DNA sequence: ACAAGAGTGGACTATAGAGTCCAGTAAGAT
DNA sequence: ATCTTACTGGACTCTATAGTCCACTCTTGT
């Protein structure tokens, strides 16, 4: 049985797929800590224990690798968020979601920020393909929030005329802005405060 | 407190100061569009019409130049914001501030994001000195917002027990997150929506 | 006026890092 | 069984870019 490569028409063996995955995973981890520009291909090779020809066998160049990293990180984040948000249908559940994100970010004192947000800021204006992929990932993430808010609305925790899409955008904005401020301050507080204000607004809408 | 080398004991003639300023201004403009990593020293030399020895006469290296860029961009943004926020004392004034930022960002369809936020994301985890400078700049910016909110509170547009510092953090978070989402989507809408939600919260606090 | 040091020009070096090549091995198709 | 192609290893090239050097010219203080 052959696994077809999603990129081009080439075949992809199980071994090849494993190598490719190791490369992307190593690149993603390095780029989260060192940044995209601060991570060299040699860094990636050393971390993944793979040779140069293997990297160039699987990717056209650094840009293609970065795009694969965007895909992987997007998948990781969305998996995590689907898990965290998939069954949330109360304001209390949303507050627990906030707590988990804040607690997790506090482990690093805010450093490195949001895996997706950092990538977005690094590549948005340099690689249009990657930018579009990231825009889609943000949209998907936001839709998870929209779904939660819709459930809140259906349960009467939000008024029937609440614009769940706009509220989800506001929530995502507060989250991303909070990540950035925390990353700059090396202190998770502004992220917590920023999210709290967004959640407080939901409460005020719910009460009104 | 500045992180530039303008006060390292060496004298600085008027001519030298002009050259130095030209270098930093060119670097700031290039880095806003191409990113920090995507801008080479040769780019900066070409854009400023200056020779390599001049650059190295005024800066120890690229890191020092980036720190000077942080200072300059910070000054520009804070000057603009002092001007925009200095006399605002009503919610309506704050909404006009929002309109101006959104209108300005719409000119580029969100591209490049916030000059300060983009620098922060690029530099925060690579250069601790620059990170601290950026953290201070964000704090100053936020204080301008705190002052506005304090005036709103004094005028009765916010309740006496409103936590103006926390509200300012939320406002700044919404702004920065909005910038990032707009930059990724190449569409100013999420920035407008994000800010609108923060302002709507202020209104709800004011009404409550 | 003139010494000292700030400022300038641009050729030069060093090297990190992207990207190439080719010889060889594993693995799926028939 | 063997043919084809995916896959691997690592030495190699090439170039972009950071950083050096030195000879020269302004500016300023005394």
Automatic annotation (TrEMBL), chains A, B:
<dbReference type="InterPro" id="IPR001647">
    <property type="entry name" value="HTH_TetR"/>
</dbReference>
<dbReference type="InterPro" id="IPR009057">
    <property type="entry name" value="Homeodomain-like_sf"/>
</dbReference>
<dbReference type="Pfam" id="PF16925">
    <property type="entry name" value="TetR_C_13"/>
</dbReference>
<dbReference type="GO" id="GO:0003677">
    <property type="term" value="F:DNA binding"/>
</dbReference>
<feature type="DNA-binding region" description="H-T-H motif">
    <location>
        <begin position="40"/>
        <end position="59"/>
    </location>
</feature>
<dbReference type="InterPro" id="IPR036271">
    <property type="entry name" value="Tet_transcr_reg_TetR-rel_C_sf"/>
</dbReference>
<keyword id="KW-0804">Transcription</keyword>
<keyword id="KW-0805">Transcription regulation</keyword>
<dbReference type="InterPro" id="IPR011075">
    <property type="entry name" value="TetR_C"/>
</dbReference>
<dbReference type="Pfam" id="PF00440">
    <property type="entry name" value="TetR_N"/>
</dbReference>
<feature type="domain" description="HTH tetR-type">
    <location>
        <begin position="17"/>
        <end position="77"/>
    </location>
</feature>
<protein>
    <submittedName>
        <fullName>Putative transcriptional regulator, TetR family protein</fullName>
    </submittedName>
</protein>
<keyword id="KW-0238">DNA-binding</keyword>
């Amino acid at each position: 049985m052959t696994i077809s490569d999603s990129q081009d028409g080439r075949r992809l063996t199980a071994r090849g797929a494993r190598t490719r995955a190791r490369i992307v995973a190593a690149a993603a981890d390095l780029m989260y800590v060192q940044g995209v520009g601060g991570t060299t291909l040699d860094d990636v090779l050393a971390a993944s224990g793979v040779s140069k020809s293997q990297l160039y066998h699987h990717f056209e160049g650094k840009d293609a690798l970065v795009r694969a990293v965007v895909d992987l990180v997007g998948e990781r984040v969305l998996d995590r968020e689907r898990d965290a948000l998939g069954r949330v249908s109360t304001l209390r559940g949303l507050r627990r979601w906030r707590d988990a994100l804040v607690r997790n970010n506090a482990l690093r004192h805010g450093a490195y920020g949001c895996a997706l947000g950092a990538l977005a800021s690094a590549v948005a204006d340099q690689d249009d393909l990657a930018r579009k992929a990231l825009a889609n990932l943000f949209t998907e993430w936001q839709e998870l929030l929209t779904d939660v808010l819709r459930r809140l609305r259906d349960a009467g925790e939000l008024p029937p005329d609440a614009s769940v899409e706009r509220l989800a955008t506001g929530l995502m904005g507060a989250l991303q802005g909070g990540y950035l401020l925390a990353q700059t301050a090396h202190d998770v507080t502004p992220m917590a405060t920023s999210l709290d204000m967004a959640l407080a607004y939901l409460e005020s809408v719910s009460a009104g």
